[in-house]
Amino acid sequence: MPSIEQTLKSAQSQLIQAGLVDSPKLDAELLLCHILQVNRTYLFTWPEKTLNPDQSLAFQTDLQKRLSGHPIAHIIGHREFWGLDLIVSKDTLIPRPDTETLIEVVLSLNSFSNPNKDCSIVDLGTGSGSIALALKSELPHCNISALDQSLAALEIAKQNAANTQLEIQFLHSDWFSAIEQQQFDCIVSNPPYIEDNDPHLQQGDVRFEPLSALTSGSDGLEDIRLIIDQAWLHLHQQGWLVIEHGYNQAESIHQLFEKAGYQNIQLHKDLADNPRISLGKKP
What we know:
Helices cover about 40% and strands about 20% of the residues. It has about 280 residues and is an alpha/beta fold. The N and C termini lie far apart (about 65 Å).
């Protein structure tokens, strides 16, 4: 039977030849860790260890899924975000490193500089719960609510909250419908923001993610317009609205913030230096 080293080299070669992934070495290692139920350090420490027939077959099955384009996170069933190991499924977006910029932006605000201070945050369209849980891990005294219109996504988010032992209030809600009378110190959201006919929807991991969590009208801004408009009623004075958006939408979103009356409007770039997070304060 093949050794760990042989298995990884063969898988990496196939992934490179297929040209479907940006990180063939890492993908091969993550797939094998999933099958062997070990961490990556084990692979480097014991490269000569051999796989048994069941392990080898299971690995080849998962490798074929990856070669067909299935996201690595869906194959192994989890993804790390902000140091948290989170369950993901076809019912949620896969948490991405660029969204960690949103967490950094919220934590940089004066309102949340003291992790022991009571505060309230709501996460709109929580999906796997990644944003809400990351913020709760840094702001343990903060009352955090997470909303989604997808019951399947909420079940995943609840499992992640239980696994990480972080207390979040989850609500089934079409944007603000379940919190009509409530106000918060901060509203955060990574809403759908891709144009309906964007060709990128037929490429990469997004082909396997829920379309309802990705697209938002002909310009990708339908949901963001609604959020910016309605968030005003759900923010305390001096409260912040923080939104993730597409790299080419910053100017339009700045105008929407201004039109709605927000002040201290800011723009932050993601890891690839693309405009990604916009925020504004209710005066």
